[in-house]
Design a protein that fits this description.
The protein has 174 residues and is α/β, with parallel strands linked by helices. It has 8 helices and 8 strands, in the order H-E-E-E-H-E-H-E-H-E-H-E-H-E-H-H. It is globular. InterPro entries: CMP-NeuNAc_synthase, HAD-like_sf, HAD-SF_hydro_IIIA, HAD_sf, KdsC_fam.
């Protein structure tokens, strides 16, 4: 089996689930039916940094919440798919759109609905709260929880593997 470093070196597209990955998985519903979710700003900045190195970003989520669309737009997510029930078909569409291979993609998920994508991409990542079946199919399990820095951890590890992290961090120390 290839190491995380070898798998991460090839990543040109990071695909993410939302609930339980970019959020802690809790969904708050207002009296008017609006869904509210909390996003981690460290994750957001990590995504912007990774994107600045040339890695594209995508979200494939089963829910269709306006707040998530707003957050995706604010982060400059390159490809956003909401209300998706067949993530495998969406992955195929995404690969066709980008011209990338599955091996050039990383995916971070937290539940069994993510497995159809996780088992196809080059780098499958899970958060520690994921069910055991998901953890078994992950090349890497983050130390940080979903919604609490898991995505930031992954973005930094990808940049380190690709040799872009140190130069990017040096800009903050000038």
């Amino acid at each position: 089996m290839k190491s995380f470093q070898e798998l991460a070196r090839r990543v040109k597209l990071l695909i993410m689930d939302v609930d339980g990955v970019l959020t802690d998985g809790n969904i708050f519903i207002s009296a008017t039916g609006e869904e509210l979710k909390a996003f981690n700003t460290l994750d957001g900045h990590g995504l912007k940094m990774l994107q600045s190195t040339g890695v594209k970003l995508a979200i494939i989520t089963g829910r269709d919440a306006p707040g998530v669309a707003h957050r995706a737009k604010g982060l400059g997510i390159d490809y956003y798919y909401a209300g998706i029930h067949d993530k495998r078909a969406t992955l195929a569409e995404l690969l066709e759109t980008t011209g990338l291979t599955a091996e050039e993609c990383a995916y971070i998920g937290d539940d069994v609905v993510d497995l159809p994508v996780m088992i196809r991409v080059g780098l499958a990542v899970a958060v520690p709260e994921a069910p055991s079946l998901v953890l078994q199919h992950a090349h890497y399990v983050t130390g940080a929880s979903g919604g609490a820095g898991a995505v930031r951890e992954l973005t930094e590890r990808i940049m380190q593997a690709q040799g872009t992290f140190d130069a990017l961090m040096a800009r903050y120390l000038e």
